[in-house]
Amino acid sequence: MQQNISSRKLFLDHVAQTSPFPLQIQIEKAEGLYLYDESGKAYLDMIAGISVSCLGHCHHSVVEAVCEQAGKYMHTLVYGEFVLSPQVLLAEFLTSKLPESLQNIYFLNSGTEATEGAMKLAKRYTGRYRIISGKNAYHGSTQGSASLMSSETYTSSFRPLLPGITHIEFNNFDDIELITKDVACVIIEPIQAEAGIILPVNGYLQAIRKKCTETGTLLIFDEIQTGFGKTGQLFAFQKYGVVPDVLLLGKAMGGGMPLAAFISSKQIMSSLSHDPILGHITTFGGHPVNCAAGLATLRVITETRLIEQINEKSALLVENLKHPIIKEIRHAGLMMAIDLGNNALVMKTIEYCLANGLITDWFLFNDTSLRICPPLTITNAEILKACEILNSAFDCCT
Questions:
Q1: Domain boundary among 267, 287, 303
Q2: Which of 28, 165, 228, 278 has its CA 20 to 30 A from that of 306?
């Protein structure tokens, strides 16, 4: 017991904190849908580590790939100089699942790095500097990515941020007229995640695509959260028949390992290789072990029936979450927001669920809704168990 107390004290004393109230659950093991603390208590993870562990925790294919590659070689040289088999194989397999205009990949470590790289790419390729992003959208927390946020709560303490950023309201057709010939790119989520799972209305993404084509503006889809099967398609843009000029990936891409990417055509991407050379560089981007994990993850997702089962699992969740406290359930496949209409109820529900072995969360720009986004591998029995705990929480919190 003394060791556990010391570990928590060391955590608070020496690990930089992001809030005054960390959960402080001491994780000893993770497997499948479950996390286990030092006492052996199991927690059903209904948010997959915030959309990361798409195959659950420690999927055997991912673990095997990591161990095998770690035994061969890890870091060799700054990204982009050596031919590394895990990078090449992942690039080949991933591009085989993408349109012809998305065939050139720049591998990175995290989603915010993908955003930063794409912003530089758009400026370099178009020669413009203005950028348009969506209100209540989250693309990362580094300086450039944070500049894309509309929320003063999360940006005012860090100003001045990048100039030339304009925010448009998602699903507002009038705001599309703000896309003009001096705009380098529009960065938008095909489904808004941190706003509380907001789906595009009919024709909206198509209208943005049309306007970007007319003005020579690059259309960047941020699929850092929506990618890798959660919505019932490998990528959300495939649901809407709109192809971006640049695609951002991250979170689930590495199956639990840090891996991200921005993807475009060879023509557009090559602009980073000259005037100046080394227009964008990274030391650990495309790490061989992480790329091996990414390839194993993508193979499992695409070579099994996981994606085919997403809508069925989503329907089972919605059907079994019946309670007067619920105002609305917004969902795209297994990405789900349970709107309770009240932040106090959300926080009470999260606390109750945690005490009863279920992990859920709120959204960065929507604190009146519960986040549900379990691993693709969740079983029907685990769905019913989660619904039982959630419904019990709703009973106790009202």
A1: 303
A2: 28
CB 224 within 8 A of CB 114: yes
Name the CA dihedral angle for 86, 89, 92, 93, rounded to a multiple of 10 degrees: -100
What is the C-alpha separation between 331 and 67, in angstroms, rounded? Answer: 36
- CA gap 262, 125 in Å, rounded: 14
Structural domain of 208: 62-303
275 in the same domain as 240:
yes
Alpha helical stretches, state H, 127-173: 143-147, 152-155
Same domain, 383 and 242: no
181: amino acid identity, one letter: K
Q: d(Cα 327, Cα 2) in Å, to the nearest integer?
A: 45
Q: Taking CA 375 as the corner, what is the angle to CA 313 and CA 24, rounded to the nearest 5 degrees?
A: 130
Q: How far apart are CA 148 and CA 162, in angstroms?
A: 8
> φ, ψ for residue 282 (rounded to 5)?
-155, 145
Tokens 């091996």, residue located? 292
> Cα separation of 184 and 126, whole Å?
6
- On the question of pLDDT at 1 being above 50, the answer is no
Classified as helix, coil or strand, 117 is: helix
Whether residue 218 is found in the same domain as residue 198: yes
Same domain, 167 and 253: yes
Would you state the structure tokens that stand for residue 391, as one six-digit string? 């419904």
CA-CA distance, 139 to 104, in Å (whole number)?
21
Could you tell me if 219 and 206 are in contact, meaning their C-beta atoms sit under 8 angstroms apart?
no
Query: What's the domain count of the chain?
Result: 2
Backbone angles phi, psi at 32, to 5 degrees: 60, -125
The residues facing 261 across adjacent strands are 107, 249
The domain that contains 221 carries what CATH number? 3.40.640.10
Q: Of the candidates 299, 380, 355, which has an alpha carbon nearest to the alpha carbon of residue 59? A: 299
Residues 86 and 120 in one domain: yes
pLDDT band at 289 (very low <50, low <70, confident <90, very high): very high
**Is residue 3 predicted with pLDDT exceeding 70?**
no
Query: pLDDT digit string (tens) for 124-147?
Result: 999 999 999 999 999 999 999 999
Interstrand relation of 130-134 and 183-188 (parallel, antiparallel or unpaired): parallel
379 and 314 belong to one structural domain: yes
pTM: 0.95
Last residue of a domain, one of 274, 303, 332: 303
Same domain, 215 and 318: no
Closest-CA residue to 238 (of 138, 334, 304, 307): 307
